[in-house]
Design a protein that fits this description.
Blueprint (H helix, E strand, L loop, with lengths): L23 H16 L12 H65 L7 H12 L18 E6 L18 H18 L3 E5 L13 E8 L12 E3 L8 H19 L9 H4 L2 H5 L6 E8 L4 H6 L1 H16 L12
Parallel strand pairs: 1-2, 1-3, 3-5
Antiparallel strand pairs: 4-5
Helix pairs in contact: 4-9, 5-9
Length: 339
């Protein structure tokens, strides 16, 4: 039987109605959200690892385009330089061609002018001069005297054992040294030869100037030992190089001239027994092969001491006279002396 008392239904027991109306507040909030979304669109999505190959390909293509443009630029520069070189060569070639054309034209003009010029055009005096020049088949050459080489007027004098090495040579008990005698006589020889107009070099024993030395003559001055042999040992020795071939004849002539003059001036006898130190004297191997040379031992420091110390002017004059006998031979040639 129906309930006569009506009651209100419980809202929780009401069934859902899809067609029920949306509240106004909810609809307003949804509209505002959509408007905000349209005003601030979401940022674009970043590239992922799958997009990396595409980016690399684009970068490679850009680099290749840049390289191609650079190659084209270099080719354009090279072509411009090549054009400039061709233009320069063309200008030089044009100048050379013009010069050749001018020369050829001048030659042709002169030839034609010569063919068609009448003989009366040139004066008679000029014609006679040309005829004489053509008729002269030989040129007269006037000989001129050649200047005498300097070394042909130069003499070298070596002071034996002298030099920075401090070698005294032979030494006597009282301190007299061979080097002092040699140097004193060598200085006087230089003085006498210079007085005769010669250029004279005073040289040390191992003078660097002796290397390939060229002169009209060279004489090395030495003295012999001060040793006591138990008997009187006196005299002088003189020698040329035993092994020289080029100036051998001149060497012997120089030796003979000096020997004759020295023996007469000092009264000393020429001794036999020339040592190897004299015949193979080191200076003979150092000087030029065409320089005549000799070495002289003035005397013995012991037995010939009075002459070596007291007659140095006479000894020097004799050596200078012997050199002049060789350089300026007179009518009488000194006779060869035996050893």
């Amino acid at each position: 039987m129906p309930d006569d008392n009506p009651r209100y239904p419980d809202p929780d027991e009401q069934p859902d109605n899809p067609d029920s109306e949306i509240p106004a507040s909810v609809a307003f909030m949804e509209m505002m959200r959509q408007a905000a979304a349209k005003a601030n669109p979401p940022p674009p999505a970043t590239r992922t690892a799958q997009d990396a190959p595409l980016a690399n390909a684009e970068a490679l293509a850009t680099q290749q385009r840049a390289e191609a443009l650079e190659e084209q630029r270099i080719l354009r520069v090279k072509r411009r330089k090549a054009r400039r070189r061709r233009q320069t060569v063309g200008v030089l070639g044009g100048i050379v061609r013009t010069f050749i054309v001018v020369i050829v034209a001048a030659g042709l003009t002169a030839t034609i002018f010569t063919w068609w010029t009448p003989s009366q055009f040139i004066s008679r005096d000029v014609q006679e001069g040309l005829s004489v020049a053509v008729a002269t088949s030989q040129v007269t050459v006037v000989p001129t005297g050649l200047p005498t080489p300097n070394w042909l007027r130069k003499v070298g004098i070596v002071a034996g054992h002298r030099g920075p090495q401090g070698d005294p040579g032979a030494v006597c008990p009282d301190g007299l040294t061979e080097a002092s005698i040699n140097f004193a006589v060598a200085q006087l020889v230089v003085r006498d030869l210079r007085g005769r107009g010669y250029s004279v070099d005073l040289l040390d024993e191992f003078d660097p100037r002796l290397d390939n030395y060229q002169a009209a003559a060279l004489v090395s001055i030495h003295s012999n030992t001060c040793q006591d042999f138990g008997e009187v040992v006196s005299g002088y020795l003189i020698s040329a190089a035993a092994s020289r071939v080029t100036a051998r004849g001149n060497d012997e002539l120089l030796v003979n001239c000096i020997s004759q003059a020295y023996g007469q001036a000092t009264g000393l006898q020429r001794r036999d027994g020339v040592t190897v130190d004299m015949s193979d004297y080191h200076t003979f191997r150092e000087i030029n092969a065409v320089t005549p040379a000799a070495i002289i031992e003035l005397g013995f420091l012991l037995a010939d001491r009075p002459i070596l110390t007291g007659q140095q002017d006479a000894m020097a004059q004799a050596i200078a006279d012997g050199i002049l006998c060789f350089l300026e031979p007179g009518s009488a040639t000194p006779a060869p002396e035996g050893n």
